[in-house]
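Before relying on records like the one below, remember that each one covers exactly one chain. Contacts with other chains, cofactors or solvent are not represented anywhere in the record.
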Amino acid sequence: MPEIQRSLPPYQQVIAHYKEKINNGELQPGDRVPSDRQLAEEWGISRVTAQKVLTAMRSEGLIETTPGLGSTVRDISSTQHHSAADRIQTARRTGRIYRPGEYARILSAEVVPAPEDVADALGIEAGSPAIRRVRVTYSASDQPTSASTSWYDGTYADIAPRLLEAERIKEGTVAYLEAQIGKVGVKGQDRIAVRAATDEDARALAVEVGSPIKVGRNFLHSEDGTVIEYGISIAGPGRESAYDYIVS
């Protein structure tokens, strides 16, 4: 049975519970979610708190409510873009890096001379070997939702050879690399900007050249400060990323 913890307000805990079920595919678009009465009974909360849960989930676009029929999970696959943080956290929780219905194609996996910006991010010399993996992620309807390039220190090529295979790594590249090098990512940072789509961006996302696209750069650090992964991702117009945080 679900149980309220005292670290967060009860309604936030209930929302987090259902968000996780939606994110990991336990709840699919169209599935019913409990009514306020059912939530109150299951979680031992008041009807007012249960109604607050449903109101907040509707405002976040997670569910939709039809009078007389109740609330169901919305299909957000066409509007939501999953950030590096989303993917790492999903992999930690579920052992899978992609959500149900998503899939990726690895376009290339190779060792190349590190460009200056990549070298700066990884803490290596410009022009020294770096591993580059390029992928495009697709929705269940086979539409490209994002494209990304992940960069790793070239010295990992011998101890993590699967990074150089143009095939999906089921447990995710981060989990695989962590196991191979004996370091765990403990701190991440995402930096977001907007720019016009280049020819390469347009081909990957099936958008017009010059369309506004969102560009994310992510850094995953181990406890000793090593950058385990440096990534650059792009997403087309109409897609948003959601970041939850508590203001104290």
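The chain has a mean pLDDT of 88.
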